[in-house]
Amino acid sequence: MPRFPAVARVRALSAVASRALALSAAALLALSPAASAQPGQERWPKAPKEFVALGDVDPTILQEIRYITPHNFTGRPVKGYLQPVCLLTRPAARALHRVQSGLLRRGYSLKVYDCYRPKRAVGSFVAWGRDLSDQRMKGEFYPRVDKSRLFDDGYIAERSGHSRGSTMDLTVVRLPAVPTRPYVPGEPLVPCHAPRWQRFPDNSLDMGTGFDCMDTLSHTLDPRVRGKQRAHRLLLKSSMERAGFVNLPQEWWHYTYQPEPFPDSYFDFPVSYRSVHGR
Description:
Blueprint (H helix, E strand, L loop, with lengths): L5 H26 L19 E3 H4 L4 E2 L23 E3 H16 L2 E7 L4 H12 L7 H4 L25 E8 L52 H16 L2 E3 L6 E4 L15 H5 L2
Parallel strand pairs: 2-4
Antiparallel strand pairs: 1-3, 4-5, 5-7, 6-7
């Protein structure tokens, strides 16, 4: 039986994992309230022609779009997310492809949690942040922060760079990747800063906290993060910076491609394939 070159074999494994993650997210979508928004989708604005689906540029990058599922700090699917797809400006997507090519040669893959984010999704975060009675996900995502401090501490903002299309939240996965199991609403919550073996399972390398952990331990270069956890953060940081991305120091997962094609524009088209393919 012929042997595949190492890179080709890694790409094949990555593609299998990516398809499995997409199927898992699609199953969640079928059960989520976000699916009910589909009939009115035609009334949403379309994406500018400079936007693409990341999978059309690099299908090997894993996608686990969290905000279309209830496993996020609000505890429910977020407005504006109609399909589990990463949308980005073309330059940002191409730059991610360059990062992925380097990581694949080392036996790793990128995995995106979030990419372009509609303005109405940001608005739903703001509304959630002001509702101090909704604490359902505190035990995992902000266990050491009083919810009344989320705005002052910078964890929630009125506007997000994600809405400009060149910002993404992502991590690094060792290949072959095993898909992360779906979150079950109501299951016991574990602090996002707990040791990896206690936290909600994620096929990401151990970065010291989970994604969207509203805690100072999530700061990329927090001195308390050492050893392999720090090395993993630096692997992501150095790989991204070589391709033109800039990290948000408060979040190890948050990167923006520079220069941004739309530095002053905040878009509100839905997260769906139709936004980029339906023109």
